[in-house]
Amino acid sequence: ILNVEQSPQSLHVQEGDSTNFTCSFPSSNFYALHWYRWETAKSPEALFVMTLNGDEKKKGRISATLNTKEGYSYLYIKGSQPEDSATYLCAFPRNNAGNMLTFGGGTRLMVKP
Amino acid sequence: DSGVTQTPKHLITATGQRVTLRCSPRSGDLSVYWYQQSLDQGLQFLIQYYNGEERAKGNILERFSAQQFPDLHSELNLSSLELGDSALYFCASSQGQGAFEQFFGPGTRLTVL
User: Cβ of A43 and B42 within 8 Å?
Assistant: First the structure.
């Protein structure tokens, strides 16, 4: 069984706070690591696909880092806004072709105005 | 709007029945993925097609089948439905397979009574 773990499960922050959460995945046979943002009543939206150890990707106030040797990725949100409230999912392919994604349970972020 | 369309949005049916869910990928995307989101489970990968061919099979029951047509749209057929099949079914598409962002459709909410 492939375990993709995310922590914390949920997070409440104030508007303006910066925050980060973790995705842990098996460090052997790494292929790629996906991050998705999922707002309530909508569908998951791709944030990043990361493939290289040490990779750092950024989209606006959201950035992610990747450590394939130790099997973790961090997602950072700088200056959280209420519209950042969502569940953030990471996903790790369970096969060498990279097309069978196993999703973590997600981190539910709530940003209070 | 991801560019992926799914029909119908909602489906209510009875146990033992058969339904077909339809997905049209983003223009230019060759890969289509199907996922199931149940109440007590995270996103579960079901099956993936690439340019008409099945490429990966996940936790898909034998009562379920799928196909991708020459115009690249895909259908997921669910038969002998059980109460436990009630879930949100997402289709996603990507340009290729592997380390590509997946773009999710709005989902089909299936309720089996």
Answer: no
